[in-house]
Automatic annotation (TrEMBL):
Gene3D superfamilies: 3.90.1200.10. This is Aminoglycoside phosphotransferase (APT) family kinase protein. It comes from Nonomuraea thailandensis. Residues 47-248 form the Aminoglycoside phosphotransferase domain. Pfam families: APH. SUPFAM superfamilies: Protein kinase-like (PK-like). GO terms for molecular function: kinase activity. Keywords: Kinase, Transferase. InterPro entries: Aminoglycoside_PTrfase (IPR002575), Kinase-like_dom_sf (IPR011009). It comes from the Bacteria.
């Protein structure tokens, strides 16, 4: 579920349709024509996908949910359930690309392709994700949380508190050195483990809502000035603080990434980031993104959704976990943990251990 999500989605050479004849079979049955290899595009992600113009002129985005068949079918049905719920009870604040058809046997989903849509992570990377857009994102997620409860009531798999006690052999043997170092730090941090277990336990006693479940900036898509939310494969009934906290956690991760991105510009060439400089830069970057979280939070509350008294603190805890989760994904691509990674982990840890203290710091003040 974790990815390096703050990088703009990379367009790739599309997988050959020769290996997936079911794609054009489905498009033909839907009356949409067929795709040709020459015009195809694909996007980075855990699932194979194909985008392009069909022979009838339709613009389509086809996703095949890959992996274990039974698990993929669960994700497939979540998408259908959520799309139906939005169509039946959504508002203008909450949109998703139209679902044109599907094939359960082959786990294929066909959407209208918003070809020139701008993903939120791309806008963030270019400094073009502003407070009005964040406000609209908040209203969209508030509208989601007002929908009738969807079918999937299964417990969310994250945080993986089971892995904080022992890693299964399959995960241990495939992990890189930096990942194992990170897991060791987490597993030896008893206060952190207690906080994560308590966060999961609290979810059993709060009012649950229909939630996205895997919210990241790249799941917000701006097309013709209309905001869409995409990728509903982890949707389920859950604590709404998961989605609210994930938005703030994305901006925490964005702020941490910026600490390393323009050090030479800020301090001059050749400067080594000491712990003190990391903390100084981190505080400044978090302060810079706080208005975006504040705007999101205002939009969320203005959506008409009911906000319980503890949601802001729980969202702060989930933001801390989101940052730790993003760093775990980053560790999977590195040979060692850097000082900036350890400092970022400390920020996430603090948000989890004392969320009441950091509610205002993140932008969730009432």
């Amino acid at each position: 579920m974790s990815t390096t999500a703050l990088l703009p989605k990379e367009r790739l050479r599309a997988s050959s349709l020769d290996d997936a004849p079911q794609v054009n079979d489905l498009l033909h049955r839907l009356g949409l024509g067929t795709l040709t290899q020459e015009t195809l595009e694909s996007f980075a992600g855990r699932n194979n996908n194909w985008a392009g113009h069909t022979s009838s002129g339709a613009r389509v985005f086809v996703k095949r949910l890959d992996g274990d068949r039974d698990e993929a079918l669960i994700r497939f049905r979540r998408v259908l359930d959520l799309q139906e719920a939005i169509s039946a009870g959504g508002t203008g604040d909450l949109r998703c690309p139209p679902l044109l058809g599907h094939d359960e046997e082959h786990r294929l989903l066909v959407f209208a392709w918003l070809e020139h849509g701008l993903a939120g992570n791309s806008l963030a990377a270019k400094g073009e994700f502003d407070a009005p857009l964040a406000y609209r994102c908040g209203r969209a997620i508030g509208a989601l949380h007002r929908l009738p409860l969807i079918a999937d009531r299964s417990a969310h798999p994250l945080p993986p508190t089971w892995a904080l006690h022992a890693l299964p052999l399959s995960l241990f043997s495939s992990a890189r050195v930096a990942e194992l170092h990170y897991w060791t730090l987490l597993q030896n941090d008893r206060p952190l483990i207690t906080a994560l277990e308590a966060l999961r336990e609290r979810e059993k006693s709060v009012e649950l809502r229909s939630c996205h479940g895997d919210l990241r900036l790249d799941q917000f898509l701006l097309h013709d000035d209309r905001l869409h939310v995409v990728d509903w494969e982890e949707a389920r009934v859950a604590d709404p603080a998961r989605d609210v906290g994930a938005f703030a956690g994305e901006w925490l991760h964005h702020a941490i990434r910026k600490i390393n991105s323009d050090v030479d510009k800020v301090y001059g060439p050749g400067v080594t980031l000491t712990r003190e400089l990391i903390l100084e830069r981190g505080a400044a970057e978090i302060a810079a993104v706080r208005p975006l979280v504040e705007a999101f939070w205002q939009g969320y509350r203005d959506s008409g959704v009911t906000v319980d008294a503890g949601l802001a603190e729980r969202a702060t805890s989930f933001a801390g976990w989101h940052l730790l989760d993003r760093l775990l994904a980053t560790a999977g691509m590195q040979t060692r943990l850097r000082p900036i990674d350890l400092a970022a982990a400390g920020i996430g840890r603090n948000a989890l251990l004392d969320p009441g203290r950091f509610v205002g710091t993140l932008g969730f003040a009432l």
